[in-house]
Please model this.
Amino acid sequence: MSYQPPVQDLMFCIEHLSHWDKVSAREQYSEFDLSDIGAVLEGYAQFCAEQIAPLSHVGDTLGAGFQKGRVTMPEGHSRAYAQFVEMGWQALTHPLEYGGTGLPRAVGAAAVEMLNAADMSFGLCPLLTDGAIEALLLTGSDEQKATYLEPLIAGRWSGTMNLTEPQAGSDLGRVATKALRRGDGSYGISGTKIFITYGAHDLTENIIHLVLARTPDAPAGPKGLSLFIVPQKLVEPDGTPGAGNSVNCLSIEHKLGVRASPTAVLEYDDATGFLIGNENCGLEYMFIMMNAARFSVGVQGIGISERAYQRALAYARDRIQSRPVNGRSRDAVPIIDHPDVRRILMRMRSLTEGGRAMAAATAGLLDIAHHGDDPEFGALAEFMVPLVKGFCSERAVEVASLGVQIHGGMGFIEETGAAQHYRDARILPIYEGTTAIQANDLLGRKLMRDGGATARLFAVRIAETEAKLASSDANARAIGTSLAQARGAFEAALDWMLDNGRRDIDAAFAGSVPFLMLAGTLAAGWKLAKGALAAQTALDAGQNTQFLTQKIATALFFTQHILPECTTEQTRIMNGSRSLLDAAFPE
Amino acid sequence: MSYQPPVQDLMFCIEHLSHWDKVSAREQYSEFDLSDIGAVLEGYAQFCAEQIAPLSHVGDTLGAGFQKGRVTMPEGHSRAYAQFVEMGWQALTHPLEYGGTGLPRAVGAAAVEMLNAADMSFGLCPLLTDGAIEALLLTGSDEQKATYLEPLIAGRWSGTMNLTEPQAGSDLGRVATKALRRGDGSYGISGTKIFITYGAHDLTENIIHLVLARTPDAPAGPKGLSLFIVPQKLVEPDGTPGAGNSVNCLSIEHKLGVRASPTAVLEYDDATGFLIGNENCGLEYMFIMMNAARFSVGVQGIGISERAYQRALAYARDRIQSRPVNGRSRDAVPIIDHPDVRRILMRMRSLTEGGRAMAAATAGLLDIAHHGDDPEFGALAEFMVPLVKGFCSERAVEVASLGVQIHGGMGFIEETGAAQHYRDARILPIYEGTTAIQANDLLGRKLMRDGGATARLFAVRIAETEAKLASSDANARAIGTSLAQARGAFEAALDWMLDNGRRDIDAAFAGSVPFLMLAGTLAAGWKLAKGALAAQTALDAGQNTQFLTQKIATALFFTQHILPECTTEQTRIMNGSRSLLDAAFPE
Model:
């Protein structure tokens, strides 16, 4: 099934939901107008649809291989990656001074969605490179920036994040990899890192590993971690890759999904590393970078959801089975005419578009926050990132599963393709911090720390949208009613959290994931509601497209079918902590 | 990870939830007391844990093979199947007169759960054989029973169900396989059947295919289907398998899960078939048999859920990561000590035990209904079957997915085993009728047809349990409060369904799956609540085991965390039909 990038909706989200007025007012973006951005995304869409999407099934079938210490990429990946570099796509959102295109983050999010919808295994390589670029931009020395940024932004080199070790997953304080200071200012890095995405491959001239490690005299725990650049090939004075560093790929994992993305076990044996920033600040730097990576994983979820939806929609139009329940035809009809098939498709579509809407909004907030213009935007951006990661990744698993269901028995057959999305999606709520870790971040850093101020601001902004909906037409009022109920559930749960977070921290954390899902679902519904208002405005102005009427239909469906889940989450949080914490697990 | 069959809970469900007083009062079961049954289940448990569970991972890794027109089973399956036959396990619930053991259905359900928890791929072969036995018992001629039942019940032969064709999945009216009458009373069967579970294999001496086909003069659509016995090897007068029939396996499918279970494409080329019952009644016979098969698929879901839960629980106890949020330890703790991990584990456990409780109750109803003693039990049994299939299969997908989540990154690695459950479980809401088909059955046959009488009886029975809970202790009262709310949601949705089912059938069917899930969730919560009352009675009588206190804890968790979903489903049903039906899918 071919992939049709949803450029119209991506542009709609950028225009109406990404705070485009504020973003585009920035000096650095002044040369781009929406039509330029539309042209860029159309070009990117064509590349994704034509060059990358066809790789997805073959890559899944063959998988990345590992022979004699070397990773082999499935057929077609090298050629496609070379085209990706040639087109300069890695550069999209990065600064002009290092060869980047300098586009806003919301455009970058649209690109990440399309690339990962086309092939999530392929998309992971540039995603990790983006993370490394981000880290170097924020914390690298001028010399490090000069050495590494240009080839990374060009896509000639790729980047990795090396956090996990067998005993240190969510708990990075347990990282044991050692970093010994050498006389020349470099460090000797030794240890084993696991789950390193694109830790070894032959797509690029060099691989730049960013590695968390511990100097001999560092404090125990997370405050004793430092971050190092460990190039796979050491860089010559002229900037080209030279001698190999002592980093070896021991094996790659046999995974449920994203099978064309090599997940490496890397052994560092006194490998040469270069400290980034200051010693013992590694985790702090990682967190800066992780925010961007977490956001991108949420966007991957939107991509997988969109792809699963398109595949299911095509099948539902094509597959003829059974007469309509209302008896209007004596013949069997395409299954899309059956109410429950429509229900599943609308659920898939509204979850996907809801995620896209909140991601576009968050990308705008991140852009504005990044430049420090507005502390309110900064706080909201920070608040939204775990919501995007949590909602879009968990919902991607749900949407991909629904996509299998639409196909009936065919969905269980690997050749159909629906099952691949179900397998690929499953990593999303796990990597870059599990959903529980996102929820801890939301509760600990984004909610308790400021006493709920940002969370209340979030609710105030939603109430403002409700006010606009209340003075519009019947659909908008119906959307507003459901939105207000969900916001009410959020505020009640928030009060309870703030209260219990002080008195009974276990009870608060027993509701952390329900709270994250409540807030994420509310955020998606809110942004869809804003989109519906924008669509109605355009319709009122005489534009009359099915696209616009369906933006309203999707928002209405979401608010009536998905938003009611917020009340259930509220009940779990406020009424369910004792039954959870008092239960025991007998041996 | 080894599998520990939950015999204690299975026996608890049989004793307290399977209407044991009524079932055991039957003449045919008078020789079995609970301790006999406990001994049988302990023996079966040992077989499943020791002989079958170790096959699961290797079977998944190797898969069933297909070479030169023959299916090859993965290593160990032949030997294990031979032991299964030797132990006589296929005979468990079948009539004494054909060599069966004659145990009640609730015992059979416990056995099906354990076998499928041990290895669902293996469990499918006996499950299909059970279906064929059931069909022959109910609709076969005396001669057919004499020929086929003894070797099937002994497990020396296996059975299959041949319904699906490429154009006929959910819509069996489109079946095109032909059956031409021959002079000798047999029929020549020609056509292609797909998705035939264990359609070809070498575990048994013979395979008895039950095939839906159409005689030349039959009416079009579902009312022109007849059911045929097509033995893979024709049976000699002495009852032994003789010459091969003209049934060929063209290929087997490459599937997402249950990979050791061969799913065959079978070509019938003027194969010799024998009519079961009357011509054109095939679908009716299939439906009788399908009820049993659907129930069993629900039970498979409980098995997968239990296995996924056990694996996740073991990992959560073993894996040490991060300090507790409440600061009670400065050291990292097993992750089972983190509130969100407990939340996920309790969700898995309560969904699993909820499914088991409702399955045991339904098995009891089916037994009593089967003997026609009590029309009320018959109607309730019919009502419960789609609930068991719908709830337990959909929840198995959820539970298996949560099991992956507990494992973090390790869950995505195939060697860990959690991913296999996630893959295996995905077929459950699809085969033997998708969840939408179950919901149509519930709405059309079990609800509209009797004007909601059985559904109201179901609610009355729940209210009776609430009354008992209300006069018990604080936990019971809390369970009762949540149960009453969920029952209220059910009754409101029921009224709406009955009203709209007459006026606006599309709107009713737009809510069919939400209604099925509402009713299924309510049924599971109800049976857990009944179990909690029984546990409290036992505790009051001086038995004091952690098992009993945890039965109450599980019920309380379910009612506070899962039952609130009923209200969301009610909202979707009653408030969501227009937004669903009015949405369009632009080309």
Chain A has a mean pLDDT of 96. The first helix of chain A runs from residue 7 to 17. Residues 124 and 248 of chain A are 20 Å apart (CA to CA). The radius of gyration of chain A is 24 Å.
